[in-house]
Amino acid sequence: MAQKVQWLTTAGIYLLVEQSPTIAAVPYPLANRTTPLATLLRRLVTVPTMSIAAVIVIMTLPVTLPIAAVLDVILRRWRFGTVRIVAFAAWYLFIGVLVQVHGAVMWVVVAFGRRSQTERAMTMHYATIRWWIACMMGGLRVTLGLRIEPDHPELLVGPSIVLARHQSLADVFVPTGLSIIGNGTWIRVVLAAGLVNEPSLDLFGHRTPQYFIQRNSSDPRSEVVALTRLAQHTDENTVLIIFPEGGLFREDRKESVLASLERRDPAQAERGRHLRHLLPPRVAGFAGLLDGAPHADVVIVGHVGYDELTDPLTVWKSVPLRHPAKVSVRRFIRSEVPDGREARRDWLNDRWDEMDEWINSEKTARAEILADRQER
Protein backbone atom coordinates (compact mmCIF):
# COMPACT_ATOMS: atom_id res chain seq x y z
CA MET A 1 0.00 0.00 0.00
CA ALA A 2 2.61 2.51 1.10
CA GLN A 3 4.62 2.03 -2.08
CA LYS A 4 1.80 3.53 -4.15
CA VAL A 5 1.74 6.80 -2.21
CA GLN A 6 4.21 9.36 -3.55
CA TRP A 7 2.90 12.56 -1.93
CA LEU A 8 5.44 14.77 -0.19
CA THR A 9 2.95 16.77 1.84
CA THR A 10 1.24 16.46 5.18
CA ALA A 11 -1.99 15.69 3.37
CA GLY A 12 -0.24 12.89 1.55
CA ILE A 13 0.86 11.38 4.83
CA TYR A 14 -2.70 11.46 6.11
CA LEU A 15 -3.78 9.71 2.91
CA LEU A 16 -1.30 7.01 3.82
CA VAL A 17 -2.92 6.77 7.25
CA GLU A 18 -6.27 6.09 5.66
CA GLN A 19 -4.76 3.21 3.64
CA SER A 20 -2.82 1.67 6.54
CA PRO A 21 -4.03 -0.98 8.98
CA THR A 22 -4.45 0.06 12.58
CA ILE A 23 -2.22 -0.83 15.47
CA ALA A 24 -3.33 -1.48 19.01
CA ALA A 25 -2.41 1.12 21.61
CA VAL A 26 0.75 0.37 23.58
CA PRO A 27 -0.47 -0.68 27.05
CA TYR A 28 2.72 0.22 28.95
CA PRO A 29 5.14 3.14 29.16
CA LEU A 30 8.09 2.89 26.81
CA ALA A 31 11.24 1.71 28.52
CA ASN A 32 13.70 4.51 27.84
CA ARG A 33 11.80 7.75 28.09
CA THR A 34 14.16 10.62 28.83
CA THR A 35 13.07 13.34 31.19
CA PRO A 36 10.97 16.11 29.60
CA LEU A 37 13.70 18.65 30.34
CA ALA A 38 16.45 16.54 28.75
CA THR A 39 14.27 15.90 25.71
CA LEU A 40 13.45 19.59 25.36
CA LEU A 41 17.09 20.69 25.64
CA ARG A 42 18.22 18.08 23.12
CA ARG A 43 15.57 18.99 20.56
CA LEU A 44 16.22 22.72 21.00
CA VAL A 45 19.61 21.91 19.49
CA THR A 46 18.98 19.11 16.99
CA VAL A 47 15.72 20.29 15.38
CA PRO A 48 16.83 23.88 14.61
CA THR A 49 20.20 22.56 13.45
CA MET A 50 18.53 20.30 10.88
CA SER A 51 16.18 23.07 9.77
CA ILE A 52 18.97 25.62 9.33
CA ALA A 53 21.12 23.07 7.51
CA ALA A 54 18.21 22.23 5.20
CA VAL A 55 17.68 25.90 4.31
CA ILE A 56 21.38 26.47 3.65
CA VAL A 57 21.91 23.30 1.60
CA ILE A 58 18.76 23.68 -0.50
CA MET A 59 19.15 27.42 -1.10
CA THR A 60 22.75 26.99 -2.21
CA LEU A 61 22.06 24.11 -4.61
CA PRO A 62 22.31 26.42 -7.65
CA VAL A 63 25.91 27.03 -6.59
CA THR A 64 26.96 23.73 -5.00
CA LEU A 65 25.67 21.45 -7.74
CA PRO A 66 27.70 23.12 -10.53
CA ILE A 67 30.77 23.18 -8.28
CA ALA A 68 30.29 19.48 -7.53
CA ALA A 69 29.89 18.76 -11.27
CA VAL A 70 33.09 20.64 -12.11
CA LEU A 71 34.94 18.73 -9.37
CA ASP A 72 33.70 15.44 -10.80
CA VAL A 73 34.85 16.44 -14.29
CA ILE A 74 38.29 17.46 -13.03
CA LEU A 75 38.62 14.15 -11.21
CA ARG A 76 37.14 12.28 -14.19
CA ARG A 77 34.29 10.92 -12.12
CA TRP A 78 31.99 10.57 -15.10
CA ARG A 79 29.11 9.15 -13.07
CA PHE A 80 29.12 12.34 -10.99
CA GLY A 81 29.38 10.87 -7.53
CA THR A 82 29.93 14.27 -5.87
CA VAL A 83 26.79 15.67 -7.46
CA ARG A 84 24.86 12.64 -6.25
CA ILE A 85 26.06 13.08 -2.67
CA VAL A 86 25.06 16.75 -2.64
CA ALA A 87 21.65 15.80 -4.04
CA PHE A 88 21.12 13.12 -1.40
CA ALA A 89 22.14 15.49 1.40
CA ALA A 90 19.54 18.00 0.21
CA TRP A 91 16.89 15.27 -0.08
CA TYR A 92 17.65 13.87 3.38
CA LEU A 93 17.40 17.31 5.02
CA PHE A 94 14.26 18.27 3.06
CA ILE A 95 12.42 15.09 4.06
CA GLY A 96 13.69 15.43 7.62
CA VAL A 97 12.18 18.89 7.94
CA LEU A 98 8.86 17.66 6.52
CA VAL A 99 8.83 14.86 9.10
CA GLN A 100 9.50 17.35 11.89
CA VAL A 101 6.68 19.61 10.73
CA HIS A 102 4.30 16.70 10.49
CA GLY A 103 5.37 15.50 13.94
CA ALA A 104 4.53 18.91 15.38
CA VAL A 105 1.10 18.86 13.71
CA MET A 106 0.38 15.39 15.08
CA TRP A 107 1.47 16.46 18.56
CA VAL A 108 -1.34 19.03 18.48
CA VAL A 109 -3.79 16.52 16.98
CA VAL A 110 -3.18 14.05 19.84
CA ALA A 111 -4.02 16.65 22.48
CA PHE A 112 -0.48 18.00 22.86
CA GLY A 113 0.92 14.54 23.41
CA ARG A 114 -1.57 13.46 26.07
CA ARG A 115 -3.20 10.92 23.73
CA SER A 116 -0.02 9.80 21.97
CA GLN A 117 -0.44 6.16 23.06
CA THR A 118 -3.92 5.69 21.59
CA GLU A 119 -4.65 3.44 18.62
CA ARG A 120 -5.33 6.43 16.37
CA ALA A 121 -2.10 8.17 17.36
CA MET A 122 -0.02 5.02 16.85
CA THR A 123 -1.55 4.45 13.43
CA MET A 124 -0.75 8.01 12.36
CA HIS A 125 2.81 7.87 13.66
CA TYR A 126 3.56 4.53 12.02
CA ALA A 127 2.17 5.84 8.74
CA THR A 128 4.67 8.70 8.92
CA ILE A 129 7.51 6.30 9.72
CA ARG A 130 6.53 4.18 6.72
CA TRP A 131 6.47 7.25 4.48
CA TRP A 132 9.81 8.53 5.81
CA ILE A 133 11.57 5.20 5.24
CA ALA A 134 10.07 4.97 1.72
CA CYS A 135 11.42 8.45 0.94
CA MET A 136 14.87 7.58 2.28
CA MET A 137 14.99 4.32 0.32
CA GLY A 138 13.88 6.14 -2.82
CA GLY A 139 16.51 8.82 -2.29
CA LEU A 140 19.26 6.26 -1.78
CA ARG A 141 18.21 4.50 -4.98
CA VAL A 142 17.96 7.58 -7.21
CA THR A 143 21.01 9.47 -5.97
CA LEU A 144 23.49 6.90 -4.67
CA GLY A 145 22.42 3.97 -6.83
CA LEU A 146 21.35 1.65 -3.99
CA ARG A 147 19.21 -1.10 -5.53
CA ILE A 148 17.98 -3.83 -3.20
CA GLU A 149 17.38 -7.40 -4.39
CA PRO A 150 16.09 -9.52 -1.49
CA ASP A 151 15.73 -13.23 -2.13
CA HIS A 152 12.73 -13.86 0.13
CA PRO A 153 11.18 -10.55 1.24
CA GLU A 154 7.89 -12.28 1.98
CA LEU A 155 9.53 -13.85 5.07
CA LEU A 156 9.90 -10.45 6.76
CA VAL A 157 6.47 -10.59 8.37
CA GLY A 158 5.31 -10.93 11.94
CA PRO A 159 5.46 -12.23 14.44
CA SER A 160 9.23 -12.36 14.18
CA ILE A 161 12.54 -11.21 15.59
CA VAL A 162 14.88 -10.00 12.84
CA LEU A 163 18.64 -10.29 13.39
CA ALA A 164 20.35 -8.11 10.80
CA ARG A 165 23.92 -7.56 9.68
CA HIS A 166 25.30 -4.14 10.64
CA GLN A 167 27.84 -2.95 8.09
CA SER A 168 26.54 0.27 6.62
CA LEU A 169 24.86 3.56 7.44
CA ALA A 170 21.96 2.37 5.26
CA ASP A 171 21.25 -0.61 7.51
CA VAL A 172 18.68 1.28 9.54
CA PHE A 173 16.55 1.60 6.38
CA VAL A 174 16.96 -1.75 4.58
CA PRO A 175 15.48 -4.38 6.95
CA THR A 176 12.99 -1.84 8.30
CA GLY A 177 11.99 -0.81 4.79
CA LEU A 178 11.53 -4.37 3.55
CA SER A 179 9.32 -5.07 6.57
CA ILE A 180 7.23 -1.94 7.01
CA ILE A 181 6.87 -0.94 3.33
CA GLY A 182 6.91 -4.23 1.48
CA ASN A 183 4.82 -6.18 3.97
CA GLY A 184 2.97 -3.51 5.95
CA THR A 185 4.20 -4.67 9.35
CA TRP A 186 4.59 -2.71 12.58
CA ILE A 187 8.28 -2.52 13.42
CA ARG A 188 9.99 -2.19 16.78
CA VAL A 189 13.67 -1.47 16.29
CA VAL A 190 16.59 -1.57 18.71
CA LEU A 191 18.65 1.52 17.84
CA ALA A 192 22.01 2.78 19.08
CA ALA A 193 21.60 5.45 21.74
CA GLY A 194 23.61 7.92 19.66
CA LEU A 195 20.88 7.97 17.01
CA VAL A 196 18.68 9.89 19.43
CA ASN A 197 20.45 12.97 18.04
CA GLU A 198 18.86 12.38 14.62
CA PRO A 199 15.68 14.49 14.96
CA SER A 200 13.31 12.24 13.00
CA LEU A 201 14.44 9.08 14.79
CA ASP A 202 14.31 10.91 18.12
CA LEU A 203 10.80 12.24 17.64
CA PHE A 204 9.09 9.17 16.24
CA GLY A 205 11.33 6.70 18.08
CA HIS A 206 10.00 8.04 21.36
CA ARG A 207 6.36 8.23 20.27
CA THR A 208 6.28 4.62 19.07
CA PRO A 209 7.66 1.49 20.76
CA GLN A 210 11.31 1.64 19.68
CA TYR A 211 14.34 1.42 21.97
CA PHE A 212 17.60 3.40 22.00
CA ILE A 213 20.06 1.02 23.63
CA GLN A 214 23.25 1.91 25.49
CA ARG A 215 25.80 -0.45 23.93
CA ASN A 216 28.28 -0.29 26.81
CA SER A 217 25.89 0.37 29.66
CA SER A 218 27.14 0.13 33.24
CA ASP A 219 23.93 -1.80 33.95
CA PRO A 220 23.54 -4.24 31.03
CA ARG A 221 20.89 -6.22 32.87
CA SER A 222 18.51 -3.25 32.79
CA GLU A 223 19.01 -2.98 29.02
CA VAL A 224 18.06 -6.64 28.56
CA VAL A 225 14.98 -6.16 30.75
CA ALA A 226 14.01 -3.15 28.62
CA LEU A 227 14.28 -5.25 25.45
CA THR A 228 12.08 -7.93 26.99
CA ARG A 229 9.47 -5.26 27.71
CA LEU A 230 9.82 -3.94 24.17
CA ALA A 231 8.99 -7.39 22.80
CA GLN A 232 5.91 -7.86 24.97
CA HIS A 233 2.37 -7.21 23.74
CA THR A 234 3.33 -7.85 20.12
CA ASP A 235 0.70 -9.11 17.71
CA GLU A 236 0.81 -11.19 14.54
CA ASN A 237 1.85 -8.18 12.46
CA THR A 238 4.79 -7.01 14.60
CA VAL A 239 8.44 -7.37 13.59
CA LEU A 240 11.21 -6.77 16.13
CA ILE A 241 14.55 -5.75 14.60
CA ILE A 242 17.95 -5.85 16.30
CA PHE A 243 21.55 -5.67 15.10
CA PRO A 244 23.36 -8.25 17.28
CA GLU A 245 26.86 -7.07 16.34
CA GLY A 246 26.31 -3.91 18.38
CA GLY A 247 28.01 -1.62 15.88
CA LEU A 248 29.24 -1.21 12.32
CA PHE A 249 31.81 -3.79 11.23
CA ARG A 250 35.36 -2.45 10.95
CA GLU A 251 38.61 -4.39 11.16
CA ASP A 252 39.86 -2.21 14.00
CA ARG A 253 36.54 -2.55 15.84
CA LYS A 254 36.66 -6.30 15.40
CA GLU A 255 40.08 -6.43 17.06
CA SER A 256 38.80 -4.28 19.90
CA VAL A 257 35.73 -6.49 20.38
CA LEU A 258 37.83 -9.66 20.33
CA ALA A 259 40.25 -8.20 22.87
CA SER A 260 37.35 -7.41 25.19
CA LEU A 261 35.87 -10.88 24.70
CA GLU A 262 39.23 -12.49 25.49
CA ARG A 263 38.93 -11.08 29.01
CA ARG A 264 35.25 -11.84 29.54
CA ASP A 265 34.40 -14.83 27.34
CA PRO A 266 37.38 -16.58 25.71
CA ALA A 267 35.18 -19.21 24.04
CA GLN A 268 33.11 -16.54 22.26
CA ALA A 269 36.28 -14.71 21.26
CA GLU A 270 37.61 -17.88 19.65
CA ARG A 271 34.39 -18.34 17.68
CA GLY A 272 34.40 -14.73 16.58
CA ARG A 273 38.02 -14.78 15.45
CA HIS A 274 37.13 -16.92 12.44
CA LEU A 275 34.58 -14.41 11.12
CA ARG A 276 35.81 -12.50 8.07
CA HIS A 277 33.02 -9.99 7.47
CA LEU A 278 31.07 -9.84 10.73
CA LEU A 279 31.53 -8.94 14.37
CA PRO A 280 30.80 -11.65 16.96
CA PRO A 281 27.08 -11.44 17.80
CA ARG A 282 25.87 -10.44 21.24
CA VAL A 283 23.38 -12.93 22.59
CA ALA A 284 21.94 -11.01 25.56
CA GLY A 285 19.73 -8.62 23.58
CA PHE A 286 18.54 -11.43 21.31
CA ALA A 287 17.69 -13.54 24.36
CA GLY A 288 15.79 -10.63 25.91
CA LEU A 289 13.61 -10.30 22.82
CA LEU A 290 13.03 -14.06 22.73
CA ASP A 291 11.84 -14.00 26.35
CA GLY A 292 9.47 -11.12 25.65
CA ALA A 293 7.98 -12.62 22.49
CA PRO A 294 7.91 -16.41 22.99
CA HIS A 295 5.63 -16.85 19.97
CA ALA A 296 7.87 -15.05 17.46
CA ASP A 297 9.94 -16.77 14.78
CA VAL A 298 13.51 -15.65 14.06
CA VAL A 299 14.64 -14.11 10.75
CA ILE A 300 18.31 -13.72 9.79
CA VAL A 301 19.05 -10.88 7.33
CA GLY A 302 22.43 -10.54 5.61
CA HIS A 303 23.45 -8.35 2.71
CA VAL A 304 26.22 -7.75 0.19
CA GLY A 305 26.53 -4.79 -2.13
CA TYR A 306 26.36 -1.60 -0.12
CA ASP A 307 29.24 -2.18 2.27
CA GLU A 308 30.78 1.03 0.91
CA LEU A 309 28.11 3.21 2.56
CA THR A 310 30.04 3.42 5.81
CA ASP A 311 31.53 6.89 6.22
CA PRO A 312 31.46 10.09 4.14
CA LEU A 313 34.86 9.56 2.46
CA THR A 314 34.15 5.95 1.51
CA VAL A 315 30.70 6.91 0.25
CA TRP A 316 32.21 9.68 -1.89
CA LYS A 317 34.69 7.26 -3.45
CA SER A 318 32.08 4.56 -4.13
CA VAL A 319 28.89 6.17 -5.43
CA PRO A 320 27.00 5.55 -7.52
CA LEU A 321 26.93 1.88 -6.57
CA ARG A 322 27.41 -0.18 -9.71
CA HIS A 323 25.75 -3.45 -8.72
CA PRO A 324 22.49 -4.32 -6.97
CA ALA A 325 22.73 -5.21 -3.31
CA LYS A 326 21.74 -8.78 -2.55
CA VAL A 327 19.83 -9.36 0.67
CA SER A 328 19.56 -12.85 2.15
CA VAL A 329 16.46 -13.53 4.26
CA ARG A 330 16.19 -16.80 6.20
CA ARG A 331 13.36 -17.59 8.58
CA PHE A 332 13.45 -20.14 11.42
CA ILE A 333 10.31 -21.27 13.19
CA ARG A 334 10.45 -20.73 16.91
CA SER A 335 10.70 -24.42 17.76
CA GLU A 336 14.08 -24.49 15.96
CA VAL A 337 15.53 -21.96 18.40
CA PRO A 338 16.73 -23.62 21.61
CA ASP A 339 16.17 -22.41 25.16
CA GLY A 340 18.95 -21.61 27.60
CA ARG A 341 21.69 -19.00 27.29
CA GLU A 342 24.48 -21.30 26.13
CA ALA A 343 22.31 -23.13 23.61
CA ARG A 344 21.02 -19.85 22.22
CA ARG A 345 24.55 -18.48 21.95
CA ASP A 346 25.71 -21.54 20.03
CA TRP A 347 22.68 -21.37 17.75
CA LEU A 348 23.29 -17.68 17.02
CA ASN A 349 26.99 -18.29 16.41
CA ASP A 350 26.11 -21.03 13.92
CA ARG A 351 23.80 -18.66 12.03
CA TRP A 352 26.52 -15.99 11.99
CA ASP A 353 29.04 -18.51 10.64
CA GLU A 354 26.59 -19.34 7.83
CA MET A 355 26.02 -15.67 7.03
CA ASP A 356 29.76 -15.00 7.01
CA GLU A 357 30.28 -17.84 4.55
CA TRP A 358 27.47 -16.55 2.31
CA ILE A 359 28.94 -13.02 2.34
CA ASN A 360 32.39 -14.35 1.51
CA SER A 361 31.11 -16.42 -1.42
CA GLU A 362 29.16 -13.46 -2.81
CA LYS A 363 32.13 -11.12 -2.50
CA THR A 364 34.40 -13.68 -4.17
CA ALA A 365 31.97 -14.10 -7.06
CA ARG A 366 31.72 -10.32 -7.52
CA ALA A 367 35.50 -9.95 -7.47
CA GLU A 368 35.86 -12.64 -10.14
CA ILE A 369 33.29 -10.95 -12.37
CA LEU A 370 35.08 -7.60 -11.97
CA ALA A 371 38.47 -9.16 -12.75
CA ASP A 372 37.04 -10.82 -15.84
CA ARG A 373 35.64 -7.53 -17.12
CA GLN A 374 38.95 -5.75 -16.54
CA GLU A 375 40.80 -8.42 -18.54
CA ARG A 376 38.48 -7.83 -21.47
Question: Any chance you could write out the topology, listing elements then pairs?
Answer:
Layout lengths: L9 H10 L16 H24 L1 H14 L6 H29 L9 H26 L3 E3 L9 E5 L9 H7 L5 E7 L6 H9 L3 E3 L6 H12 L6 E5 L8 H14 L1 H8 L9 H10 L4 E8 L7 H7 L6 E8 L8 H35 L1
Parallel strand pairs: 1-7, 2-5, 2-6, 3-4, 3-5
Antiparallel strand pairs: 6-7
Helix pairs in contact: 1-5, 2-4, 3-4, 4-5, 4-7, 5-6, 8-11, 9-10
How would you explain this protein's 3D organization?
The chain is of the alpha/beta class. It has one domain (2-375). Helix content is 55%, strand content 10%. The chain has helices at 10-19, 36-59, 61-74, 81-109, 119-144, 174-180, 199-207, 220-231, 251-264, 266-273, 283-292, 312-318, 341-375; strands at residues 148-150, 160-164, 186-192, 211-213, 238-242, 297-304, 325-332.
Strand ordering within the main sheet: 1-7-6-2-5-3-4
Question: Radius of gyration over alpha carbons?
Answer: 21 Å
Task: Give the mean pLDDT.
Answer: 84
Helix content: 40-55%
Count up the helices: 13
Q: Per DSSP, what share of the residues sits in E-state strands of 2 or more residues?
A: 5-15%
Low-confidence stretches: 1-21
Tally of individual domains? 1
Task: Give the overall shape, derived from the CA principal axes.
Answer: globular
Order of helices and strands: HHHHHEEHEHEHEHHHEHEH
What structural category do the secondary elements indicate?
A: alpha/beta
Work out the number of β strands.
7
Largest sheet: 7 strands, mixed
How many angstroms separate the termini?
A: 45 Å
